[in-house]
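USER: Please consider what follows.
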Amino acid sequence: MPNPLGFVGAWLDRADQLRTDPQAFAAACVDPRARCLALDGVDFVPGDGGGLRWEPLDPADDRTLMLLGRDDRGIPYFVREAPRGARIDARSRTVMRLLPLLSPQDLALYGGARSLVDWHARHGFCAVCGSPTGIFRAGWGRRCGGCGAEHFPRVDPVVIMLAEHDGRVLVGRQRQFPPGMFSALAGFVEPGESLEEAVARELFEEAGIRVSDVTYVASQPWPFPSSLMVGCRAVATDPALTLDETEIEAAMWVDRAEVRAALGGDMEAPFMVPPPLAIARYLLEDWAGWTP
C-alpha cells in the first residue's frame, strides 16, 4: 500500500454541537483542562518532543479562541486568531522542513488549525458591504457588523491527476520545482464544473491531451492556504503532447519501472518524485503498486 496521505486523520472530535451552543462553548473556554495550540503566525511551534506544543489557556491573551474539538476525555482544544497585523507566510520554508517531525494525527490537526487561522486573518471585512466582521460559531464563521451577512471558512477544490496511456503515466514540472522533480498535473476546479470535467479540461489546457474514464483515487486537505486536493486518474486517447509553457516547463510519459525507480531513489531514474506528504507522491505509489 502507498504511504498514508499527509494532513489526514486528525484525532479530535470536531464537536459541532459546541459551535452552536454559546453556553457550552463558554464553559469549554474556562475548562481548566483546556489546551491551546501554540502558533507563530500560522506556523506551528515545536514542542519538547518535536510534535505540536499545547499550552494552558492564558487569560491575559485577549485574542479570540476558536474550537478545534474535544478528545475522548472531553478535554477541549483551541487555537487563537493570529495577532493583529501578523505577517502570514503562505508557505513558510521553515515550517515545511518541520512538518515531517509531526505524527500523522498531529499533522492533520495542525493543517486544519492553520487553514482556519489563515482564513480569519484574510477575512476581516464583509464581502457584501465592506464592514468589519467578527468571529462567531466558536471560530467557524464570521458575521458582518453592518449587514449581518455570515461567512464561513472556504475550501478550494483542486484536481490532481495522472493521465495514463499504454502502460505509462504523464508527469510534468513547473519552473519553480526543485531540479529534476516531476509531479502529477493539477488545477483548480472552476465554477459550474464537475470534478471529471475539471480533470479533462486541465489536462487538455496544460498538456494538450484528451482523456476519458476519469476515476477518483483519494483526497487530501492541503493547508497552504486551504485547498482540497482531489486525486484522480484518466485515460488519454493519444499520447501526443502540446504543453502550455506558461504553466508546464516540461512533461513526459513514464512507465511503472521508471516510476518505481524514482520512488526508490535510484540515481538513474528519469525524474525525482514529490515529497512524501504530497498527494502526487501517493498517486504515483498507488499507480506503480509501490510498497515502501
About this structure: The first helix runs from residue 16 to 19.
